[in-house]
Amino acid sequence: MRSMRMMLAYLLVAPLIVTAADAKVLRSKGKSPTVLVFKDDEALSRSIRLVATPTLYSESVMESFLACKPPQGSKVEVLSSGRRTAVVRIVEGTANGCQGTVPIGNVRDK
Questions:
Q1: Is 72 within the bounds of a domain?
Q2: Domain limits at 43?
Q3: For residue 87, which of 7, 11, 79, 102 is within the disulfide window of CB 3.0 to 4.6 Å?
């Protein structure tokens, strides 16, 4: 019975330890006060193509690809990641709860 309680306690506390150890923040290159979080991988890819074609660039079209624009240094939970992108959820601040895709280089240790 005691070992069962200890195992239950471990299962409840272990995720908190992992979360604290893996604390991440968003940082982008440049001097912008915000970081662009895209709705998904496709929106990120389309925005890159849009920026690469200046004659087609439109601020309103770019905005349609975004999930949110949290401030630099916003704390995030990494939901999944690959070689080029990560899916994150903002866990504090003005964009709390926003979820989307960012280039993997924008996810940094605290």
A1: yes
A2: 23-109
A3: 79
The vertex-48 CA angle with 92 and 24, nearest 5°, equals 25
> Which runs of E-coded beta strand occur in 1-106?
24-26, 37-38, 66-68, 75-81, 85-90, 99-103
Give 57-103 pLDDT, tens digit per residue.
888 999 999 999 999 999 999 999 999 999 999 999 999 999 999 99
Taking the CB of residue 12, how many other CB atoms lie within 10 A of it? 9
CATH number, position 65: 2.30.30
Residue 49 lies in a domain: yes
The structural domain count of the chain equals: 1
**Residue 66's beta-bridge partner residues?**
38
| Res. 9: pLDDT tops 80 | no
| Residue 18 forms part of a structural domain | no
Average pLDDT of the chain, as a whole number: 83
